[in-house]
Amino acid sequence: MPTLSINNGFDNYSDVMLQKKSSDILAGVTNNSYFPAPNPPVVDMGTLIADFRTAITDCKDGDRLKIAIKKQKREAVITALQLWAPYVMAQAAGDEVIAKSSNFDIRKTASPKPPIENPENFSVVAGANPLELFARTNRVLGAIGYNFQYATDEMMALDNWQVITTTTTKCTIPNLVSGTVYNCRVAAIGPRNQIMYSVIIRCRVS
Fold this sequence. Notes:
The structure is a single chain. With 206 residues, the protein is of the alpha+beta class. The chain has 2 domains: 3-109, no CATH class; 123-204, Immunoglobulin-like. It has 5 helices and 10 strands. The strands form 3 sheets. Strands 5, 6, 8, 9 and 10 form a 5-stranded antiparallel sheet that branches. A 3-stranded antiparallel sheet has the order 3-4-7, with no helix packed on it. A hairpin with a 6-residue loop joins strand 3 and strand 4. Helix 1 (15-29) packs antiparallel against helix 2 and helix 2 runs antiparallel to helix 3 (64-92). The longest helix has 29 residues, at 64-92. It is elongated. The two termini are 50 Å apart. 23% of the residues are buried. InterPro entries: FN3_sf (IPR036116), Ig-like_fold (IPR013783). This is Fibronectin type-III domain-containing protein.
């Protein structure tokens, strides 16, 4: 299930964008029963935003002191919004409608996928054509692919497995040597480089 988070990129906003967005958030939280006690209080947030708006206008003449004051007022607004953000998320408790009523930009973050499990019911039989084996396994929940692997005893001792990668649970292993015993297994591949192996089955090619 996705989780909610706030897109808290206020540092990248222009002054005009920040003034508008902060005003929208103030309007969303004010008299909103879901957010009864934000810190700083609604009145104080309103004062910070009003001071920032005034500072934006005052510094248009390029006066360095006024520009410095505007930057100070801007940081005060951003700090207050960053205090409100976790409060809003705590009050929303995962409810997207409540979170969005604050007018913060809400995004969904996918929850981490659980680890995959070992492939089960792996089987290997003679293929439809000579010098082939046919392998199959049950689907592994969360797997994004499968590595069907085979090796002679000598190759397995050197950990030198031959690999056929598929996105399905079935695989034909071709071009084998008659009379040779092969060790076969399948690896389920999951997200974040997860690899889970089946049991090893020994099979002689006719």
